[in-house]
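Tutorial handout. Part one gives the primary structure; part two gives the three-dimensional structure as tokens.
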Amino acid sequence: ITLDVGGRLIRALRTTLDRSPRLAKLVERFAVNMQCDGTIFVDADIEVFSHVLSFLRRPDTFPLFWSKATGFDYGLYARVKEEARYFGVKGLVDWIEERGYEKAVKQNVKYEKPVEIK
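Part two.
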């Protein structure tokens, strides 16, 4: 099945989309939502939706938005959570609400006592 998400075409298996109640319903009614080119339009932000779709494809793999320089991207987690809630992806919503991402990163902080100069 080809989805048009924000002008970007994404292909996904029907079984993948069926993991989301809202996407499954959209595909069931595909004749209504199908565009002239045979794609199904999904009104979503591709940058956020892509993380939800990745989770639908691999439900045991959660998104990690973290870098050493900036830490966690809490704003992106909030947007992904709301998109997942909209599409009925409970496992992803629960993981974000439980802050599962904080358990996925371990940081070691090394502190060296300053040398005292006399």
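Part three, for discussion. The first helix runs from residue 14 to 17. The CA atoms of residues 17 and 81 lie 17 Å apart.
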